[in-house]
Amino acid sequence: MAQFDWFLKIGATQQAVNVLNDQPYLFTVLIVVLLGMTIECLLVYYIHWVTLKPEQRKKKAPAKK
User: Which residues cross the membrane (predicted)?
Assistant: First the structure.
């Protein structure tokens, strides 16, 4: 049993599993790229949020007593 056989259970083809078992660094590259893209999206959203003008931000509604 090879390292990436569990991919068969989630719908990967035998050929894809064979490639991952032969070249496991491809899986590492995939994970690194996905993490990098997620971090980049979070950074873009943070920059957008920080640079909003005060009148563009949503005002919090006053609490009713």
Answer: 25-50
Q: What is the secondary structure of 11-65 as a DSSP string?
A: T--HHHHHHHHH-THHHHHHHHHHHHHHHHHHHHHHHHHHT--GGGSPPPPPPP-
Residues 6+ positions from 19 with CB-CB distance below 8 Å:
26
- Written as tens digits, the pLDDT of the chain (65 aa) is 579 999 999 999 999 999 999 999 999 999 999 999 999 999 999 999 999 888 877 777 777 77
d(CA 50, CA 42): 12
Q: How far apart are CA 32 and CA 25, in angstroms?
A: 10
